[in-house]
Give the backbone structure.
Amino acid sequence: MENTKVYGEIFQLIGWEGFALILLTGVLIGLLIAWLIWRNHLQRLEAVIDQKEKEISLQKASLKELEEKSALREGDLKRLNLQLAEAHEKVKPLQASNSKLSAETSVAKDHIEKLRVINAEQQNTIEDLQNQILGLKTLNQKLDKQNQLNEDELEGMAQMQSSYNATIKKVKDLESKIENIGQPKKNAKPKAEKKPATKPEKSQKKQEKIQRDDLTLINGIGPSTQKKLNELGIFRYEQISTWSEDNIETITTALGYFPGRILRDDWIGQAQVFVKNPPTQASSSGAISADPGDLKIIEGVGPKIEKLLHQSGIKNWTELAQASENDLRQILEAAGPNYRIHDPSTWANQAKLAAEARWEELREYQKFLTGGRDMAE
């Protein structure tokens, strides 16, 4: 109510004209403010439009550049497709050639495999021939000894015949002397008795005892090989440790080995180790070895075959003595051509003697073995 009165009083003072003027002024001011606001907004919109136009211009330039690059790429793609087609055409003969080479390679592999089989068979034949040669050498040595015995017998018979003839002559001389007994010659002077001549006793020189090492502890040397080395005057590790190439060649020839055997088993290196660190010997008990797992004491068993037997479950002499010859041959056959050439026919017998500590019998038995094979059979 109070506000109405105030408005009424103002209206009476200014009148209708004043009121209309005030109202018109307010409208103009509002329009001016609205125009200013719209203009400011319009300027902002124009700035945004300019920015967008610039961006559109840049996008168009970029698009044009991309279209040019795309055209170039299409040209490159066409050229690459042509090159690819040409490459396919070139590959076709190569593929045919490759197929032919693959077939030839397969044939060559089959041929190589056949050659390997033939080589293994020839190797087995060579090893058999080598064993036969060793056996023939052993028989030749036995025959030489027999021939030497026959020559000694003939020489003895000749000496006996000579002694017999000399005895007959002495008997005849005695008979003639007996007939002349009692008829001494005149003025004969008695002969002085001759004292039997005594030959001075020859001083017996004490032979220096040769110190012998157990050469069978060297891998690759068995009892029969040790015997041959002893016959050649080789008893000590120290002798083997200083061998030269000429010595190796001479010993290889004397033993009847193929060249390279001594170097392959490294006798010299093993001997040098034993010279620096002498092994513990079991000679006090007469044992060849104190280790039941040492299968290398078996003639014909080397380090590789010992390892193979251990891997097959044969760990000691007792287990080897219980193994059949067929089982041993199957183990060697499964190991390959380099193993199947060995003859295990005497291994069980040797192992039994070792397990029962019958060392002297084992030594005597091994004298007749070559590579584990009984050459007397």
